[in-house]
Amino acid sequence: MPEAYDHNQIELKWEQRLRDPSLYRADPSAPAPKYYVVEMLPYPSGRLHMGHVRNYSIGDALARYMWMRGYNVQHPMGWDAFGLPAENAAIARGRHPREWTISNIAEMKRQMYRMGFAYDWDLEITTCEPEYYRWNQWFFLKMLERGLAYRKKAMVNWCPKCATVLANEQVIDGCCWRHEDTPVEQRALEQWFWKITQYADELLRDIDTKLAGGWPERVLTMQRNWIGRSEGSEIDFTLEGSGEKIRVFTTRVDTIYGATCVILAPEHPIAAKLLDETGRARAKQMIDARAHKGPGDLEKDGHFTGAYAINPYSGDRLPVWIGNFVLMEYGTGAIMAVPAHDERDFDFCKTHGIPIRPVIRPLDGELDENPEAAFTEDGIVERSGEFSALSSAEARRKMNQCAEREGFGKAAITFRLKDWGISRQRYWGTPIPVIHCAKCGTVPVPESDLPVVLPHDVKFTGEGRSPLAEVASFMNVACPQCGGPAKRESDTMDTFVDSSWYFYRYLDPKNEKAPFDSAIVAKWFPMDQYIGGVTHAILHLMYSRFFTKVMRDLGLVSNDEPATNLFTQGMVLGHDGTAMSKSKGNVVDPEEMIEKYGADTCRLFVLFAAPPEKDMPWIEASVGGPRKFLERVHRFVVRNSDGTAPGDAAADRRALRKLHQTIRKITEDFTNRWHFNTSIAALMELINDLYADEESLSRSALDQISPTLVLLLAPFAPYLAEELWEALGRKGPVFRQRWPSYDDELAKEDAAEVVLQVNGKLRGRILVHFGASSEELEKAALADPKVQPFLSGKQVTKVVVVPDKLVNIVVR
RNA sequence: GCGGAGAUGGCGGAAUUGGCAGACGCACUAGCUUGAGGUGCUAGCGGGUAACACCGUGGGGGUUCAAGUCCCCCUCUCCGCACCA
User: Fold this and answer.
1) How far: A427 CA to B13 C1' (Å)?
2) Cα–Cα distance, A574 to A763 (Å, whole number)
C-alpha cells in the first residue's frame, strides 16, 4: 500500500523549497511574449479571508498556466496599507497604525506563502512606506502644476460629540458610529480635489473604443452610468430687482414655456442672499436632513425665497424657491420647474400650490389641460411663442440657437461624474504636500523636499481635528517661498490614490528617482489581465483609468488604459448563502481549512464549486470531494510510478483517448472562459476512468499518462503537482514545464454514437462509423428495433439527419 | 423608479454552436472491505411506473423536425444607481 496523502508534510516541504522569489521572476530579455497578470492587492486587515483565497487562486492558476504555455509572466503582489481600520485599531486598542499594519502584513504574507501563491516577492510594494507614498505626493505636485488639483469648500460629515469629521462608512443610519443617537451634521471645509471631470469625455469614449470586449459589460455599464453624460441647455433666469442671473441646467429646454418656478439647491450661494433668517434655518435643516437620508426616500421639501426671476424666453415672472431635491453638485445647482412635464417638478408644485402649465402635446393626442401626472415624453411644442408647433427635438435646437444669439444661455453637456475629493481628515494616509503661508498662500512643497514623511508620534483620540494638526513638529515649517513661518496641510490623501497606480510601481519598485522607469513600463503595459472583486467596478477602476490618462499626458506612459482585460470574480458566501460577516457567525477562516484539508484542496474547492465569476457558498461538507480527488490522484500516480504492468491495448487506447480529451478540455477552458469548475470536473472524470482501467494499463501508457496528469493538475493544485512530479523522477519546478498538447486524432472516439428520435423524443441510439452517410443513417434508424414500435401504424413524413449525431423521424 | 445579471434534482453546478437535460461533486441508499471508522471500493440516485408509457429546466404563449438554449408576455431573486433636472 503506498503512503497516504499527507497534505501538511507535502505542502510544508514544498513551501520551503519554492520560497525563492526568483523562481517566479519574469525574464525581461526573453523573446517569449509578455503576460502581465495582477490581482487586486489586499488591504492588510489581519488575516486572509476566503475572498482573497478565491481571487488569488484564480490569478495563480492563470499565471501558472501561462508560464507553462511559455509566456513571460509577471505576477506581483503588494499591500494597500493605508486606511481607516488601522486608525480605528489605534483608537480602540492603543496600537500604532504602523505597527498594527506591519504585523498584519507579516501575518498575511505568511498565509500567502502557505497557500503557495506564485508571486515574485521582490516586486512587493507597501503603500504606507515613504518610498511608495512619496510618489503619491509627486503626482499631487504634477496635478497641481497641470491645474488638475484645486481646493474648494466641500461638505463633510461632522459628529458634534467627537468634534471630528466622519468618513462615509462611519455614518450609520445618519448617525455617528460611536454615538448612535447623535445625528451627523454637514460642515463645509476647504478640501483638495482632482479634476477627473476634465477626462470625463475620454473616460466615457474609451469604454467603447478601448475596453469593450475585454472588460465585463456589467462594469462598463456601471461606469457609463457613473459618468452620466447628458446633453441639454444652460439658461439664465434674471432676478427681479438685483438683476443677478440664476443659471439653470435642463435637458428639456423645449418645455421652458411651461416653467412655473425656479428652484435652487439649499446650498446655492444665491439662496443665502435671498433668504431671511427663517429661510436660512430651513435651508440648513434641509442640508442636514439629506445626510441622514436612509433607505427611505426623503419627502420633497421647499421654501419660497420671496424673490422672482424672469424666464428669458416667455418673459414670465417666476417665484424662486429652494428645494431639498435640487442638488448643488449636479448641473448648476438650480433648476426650472416644469410640473407638466417632469415628475419631480409635478410632485413639488402640487404640494406647494404652484401652477401647472402644459406646453407639450403628445404626437398622437391633444394637450392635456389638467394633467393627473407629468407627461415626460417628447411631443409637439405648444403655447411657446415662435417655437410653437415644432417637435421637441427641433424646438431644443432652435431654442439653443436663440439663447446663444441673445446671450442668455447655450447648449451644454453635464456629467454626473464629480471631481475626486482626495482630502481626508485622517492620520493614516499620504500627507498632502502643500504648505499654507500667511503671506504666500498655498505653496507646494518643492519636489526636492519629498517625501513629506508622516510623523510617528501622534495621539489617537478619535476626537477633535485631524490628528496631524496636533503635531507641532510636523505642522510648523518654513514657507518654501518666503522662508517665513507657515503650516503644513494637515489632511492626508484618500487611499484610492495609493491603489490607482500601484501596478506600475511593481515593475520598478525600488526606483528613487521616479515613480518608475517609463521604458520598463512600456514593455509590460497595459496589464494583460486584472482580476478582482466587482465591488471595485466603479471607484477604484475609474480612478485607475484617470490616473493612467494623467500619466500619459505627463509623458510617463504610452498606454491609454491600465488593463486590456478585467475579470471580476464572485463573492465567497457563507454556508447560508449570504455574505460572510462576523455578526452572522458564518465566517470561514481559510487557515483552519488549510490546516484541515491543505492549501491545494482549498484552491481546488474554491475553483470547483462554481464558475469564478459567480458567487459561491462555502459549504464545508462539499470540500471532501476535491480532497478525495487529490487523494485518488496521489494514490494513482504513486502506486503506478514504476514496476511492470500487463498492458491491454484496448484499455491503453481508452485511457489515452480520455487523457487527450481532458487536455483539450482544460486548454479550451483556459483559452475561452476560465470555467475551472468544468476543468476540474474533467480531471475527476479522467481519474475515475483511470481507476476503472488501472489493472489493465501498460507500462508505456502509464508513463505517458501520469506525468501528463500531473502537468494538468499543476495550475490548480501546485503543491501536490510538485510532489508527484518529483515522485516520477522529474526535475521541477512543475510550473515551468511545458503545458501538454493534445492530439485530436487520439482524442477521437472509435465510433459515432447517433441518437435516434421519433417526433423529437429519444427512442434509441446506435454506434456507426464517423462520416456515415445520411442514407445509411436513415436506413439504420428506420430498421432499429427500439424505434420500430413507434413507427407501426404511422406514416413517416420526414426524416432529419444530423451526421454523426442524430436522426429524427417525423411521423403522423 | 432606471440599469444589469439570474432562476435547471435534496444541495453546488454541467449542457460552449438549437440536437441525448442533470456531466462532475456533495448529501442520501444498498452491497462489499475493515477489529473499528467522518476509511476504501462497487452500484443506485429528477418525478412517476411492477415495467413501460408519460411528466419534467420559475409561469404562460410562440417559432422549429427538434427549445434549458431563439421570440413575446408575466413572476420572483440578487446586484448597481437612485430625486442627476
Assistant:
1) 47
2) 44
